[in-house]
Amino acid sequence: MITRTKTVFNVKGLNEIKAKLFAWAAHSSPQAWYDSNQYPHQKSTHDAVLALQTNPHFSQISSYKTLKNAIGKDWLFGFFTYEFSSSWEQVIATNPSRISLSKLQFFCPKKVWLLKGDTLTALYTNLDNAKDDFEHILATDSLPSRESIAIDLSPRISKSDYLKNATALQQHILRGDIYEVNYCMEWFAENTQISPPNVFQSLNAISKTPFAAYLSMKNLHLMCASPERFLKREGTMIASQPIKGTAPRFQGMVLDKAAAQKLKTDPKERAENIMITDLVRNDLSRIAKKGSVSVAEQCVVYPFEQVHQMISTVIATCSENTHSLDIIGACFPMGSMTGAPKQRAMELIDRYEASQRGLYSGAVGYFAPNGDFDFNVVIRSLIYDANQQYLSTHVGSALTAAANVEREYEECQLKAEAIKRVLANQHTTTV
Questions:
Q1: Class of domain 5-423
Q2: Do the Cβ atoms of 363 and 332 come closer than 8 Å?
Q3: Residue 175: pLDDT band by 50, 70, 90 thresholds?
Q4: Where are the domains of the chain?
Q5: Which among 228, 272, 411, 417 is annotated as catalytic?
Q6: Which pLDDT band holds residue 87 (cuts at 50, 70, 90)?
Q7: Among this protein's residues, is 228 annotated catalytic?
Q8: What is the pTM of this model?
Q9: Range list of β-strands (E), 192-319
Q10: Does residue 369 contact residue 322 with C-beta atoms inside 8 Å?
Q11: Torsional class of 62: left (φ above 0), alpha (ψ -120 to 50), beta (otherwise)
């Protein structure tokens, strides 16, 4: 276990101190920033977390064995890509990878800042003075507004190809190969230059999601406005909160409430959510204590800035000796981004999608020194490779036997709305 010096500061103005923290570290790499945006439902342990600079005693971790040995020794921050396969399900990716990534990548930071309410805690491994850094943070101005940009994203496949492939996947469902599949498409821009911290700041400002994340590792930058938790561990408690079911927000209160109520009672959306909830229950049962898996919430509709989402919460209890990476391995990749049964759905995803997903529908988060962890689902996100000047996002939706493929395509466009607004330099927040 690595020893860290703990320094606690009292702060005022939660949003102001978050803005200063992010601006102070904006151009550091490696860097991880997580922001809960004070969203009440997910009960995040921290309002914001910042980690930066690699601990010289640790090299960056990109292998399963090294990561497993490192968990429980100190803080670790990083990601799993979608192609990181669990030990019990192996699907060989055959599609091209547009951005070169390790299947997992983590770093042990020199500096960790934890913000909760009016308490800001610094955890430092070296002789750097946290009090000096705190003074610099207070003196830092928020990131200036980015220059006006307008980046057009191109679809990897045409609408006609999307509809053709979605219909083919529906035929697999009707034949009984699968019950549900999450089918995704990529939008991208080549030869483009952006300021990733500024783009993330703009995306987070109009999205305000509970699992927002900014990750910078050399040439890789993630700007994530995810509303979905993949997995959280606190001691022997495990929680997963899959999302299935989406409806647009409206400016008028009457229309907005009607949209939420329609989503809540929509039989197709509820069927999707229940199927994935059952899949998550099955995944957790692989490592949970017998009889401990339960559904705390089923098909509850919550409002976000652009959309209403239907969320379920599955909880379970594990043994104290259960390794955290075994818990993640039992559930990865998440059911909400694959389908049911998971193995066959993943095989069909590889067959019908046009490229590897990479970081999209993977997971970003952290391991605490005691082995606890919290990871999101990487959706509503931009991934930028600065070396290649390649910018990418994916959107997707769940296909079932009852799905209307035209409407599923429209849902994909709705989910990309916030990102398109940011890249078009538009800042309205309702439709």
A1: alpha beta
A2: yes
A3: very high
A4: 5-423
A5: 228
A6: low
A7: yes
A8: 0.94
A9: 211-217, 220-226, 229-234, 237-241, 243-248, 294-303, 307-317
A10: no
A11: alpha
